[in-house]
């Protein structure tokens, strides 16, 4: 049986947020995220936390010292602009993850989304969304080439 404690990434054991009320990291709409961000600035696993949030498309709360809006901005660096180191690591890892996803889906008995997610460090839902976006983009490209 998988428990929530077993499902948490190892780095979370060292996260300072585990020692305080989780509500601190989920301020009400319009609330002040600064107390959570201040704690993140003193945490040893802030980079890992932020990378996890970016990879898993965490939509709520403060992760890695960044609000959801700040995380969206990190992922939306315009072309030609300097790429944030977190985003560069994400791009590099994405190619490796893509290869793993393709290999696991190309088996005689394809892996489940959850199994693939465990292999690449994403949630099963994140893998499923990624794969469907890739398929839609490939279909669109084929249609454009055929036109």
TrEMBL record:
CC cofactor note = Binds 1 [4Fe-4S] cluster per subunit. Following nitrosylation of the [4Fe-4S] cluster binds 1 [4Fe-8(NO)] cluster per subunit.
Q: Which cofactor does it need?
A: [4Fe-4S] cluster
Which InterPro entries does the record match to this protein? 4FE4S_WBL, Whib
Primary location recorded for the protein, binned into one broad class = cytoplasm
Give the signal sequence positions. Answer: none
Post-translational modification summary for this protein = The Fe-S cluster can be nitrosylated by nitric oxide (NO). Upon Fe-S cluster removal intramolecular disulfide bonds are formed.
Is this entry keyworded Cell membrane? no
Alphabetically sorted, this entry's keywords are:
4Fe-4S, Cytoplasm, Disulfide bond, DNA-binding, Iron, Iron-sulfur, Metal-binding, Transcription, Transcription regulation
Give binding positions for [4Fe-4S] cluster: 17, 40, 43, 49
4Fe-4S Wbl-type domain ranges (all copies): 16-73
Q: Where in the cell is it found?
A: Cytoplasm
The record's function comment reads: Acts as a transcriptional regulator. Probably redox-responsive. The apo- but not holo-form probably binds DNA.
In the record, the note on similarity to other proteins reads: Belongs to the WhiB family.
- Protein known as: Transcriptional regulator WhiB
